[in-house]
Amino acid sequence: MKNAGVGVGIPDTGRVKLVFEKDKKLHIYSGASCIGQGLGTVLTQMVVTNTDLKMKILFMSEAIPGSHRIPGTTSGSRQTLVTGKPAAEPAIRLWRTANAGKTIDDVIGKIYYGEYLAKTDPLGANVPNPVSHVAYGYATQMCILDKKTGKIEEMVAAHDVGKAVNPLSCEGQIEGRRSDVHRICTESIIRLMRIVNQLTSMDLLVCSALMRFRKSMPSLLTNRD
Q1: For residue 8, what are the CA distances in angstroms to 2, 11, 86, 161?
Q2: What is the pLDDT of residues 46-70, one digit of tens each?
Q3: How many alpha carbons fall within 13 Å on the CB side of residue 144?
Q4: 20 phi/psi in degrees, rounded to 5
Q5: Handedness of CA 196, 202, 208, 210 (dihedral sign)
Q6: pTM attached to this predicted model
Q7: Which of 82, 81, 2, 79 shows the shortest CA–CA distance to 37?
Q8: With CB atoms 3.0 to 4.6 Å apart as the test, which of 18, 41, 71, 133 could cross-link to 3 if both were Cys?
Q9: What is the DSSP string of 130-156?
Q10: Are 120 and 132 in contact (CB under 8 A)?
């Protein structure tokens, strides 16, 4: 099971501004960092899904200095929820404006602002049905080993992520983490084998000493009596 968002009562707010700038492109401003998890793609998808705008007129912009409070660290699931939702809501308002007969020229410079708070309860909160996180995903993996060689023959991963906003990014996260777990497990097994090999001779000496001690116990007790 994997949570989305920081949770446990810690403030977790995402903020987005949509603005048609003078270049007649819709600029998406967010305080969240796009550092490889595909946040820029997700925010673009959120806007396109809720409007009839084409991808070519969208532009992912950096946040205007001082205009946004930083919404915390970036991870695929967290910012998809916390920053993706406030991108979708102003996009809907923008589309309603377009349906009211407004053109791009009419709304240049107008700010469409969205904000979302992933409200949760602190650990140990004295409230009925406390909420530790606003959403969860579930995952399970199965590793199939070759009976003869002991090597991994196949890895099967089943993930319930709800609505996959960016299926390709979601698939990449699953496969990347699965490969990482495989590497960690392999390295752990290798380290364990090295430790066992190093301790084998010592273990034999310890066992031998214990056996000699046990054999001497009756004579020691007799001498004591």
Answers
A1: 14, 9, 21, 21
A2: 898 888 887 666 766 665 555 555 6
A3: 5
A4: -80, 110
A5: negative
A6: 0.67
A7: 79
A8: 133
A9: --S-SEEEEEEEEEEE-TTT--EEEEE
A10: yes
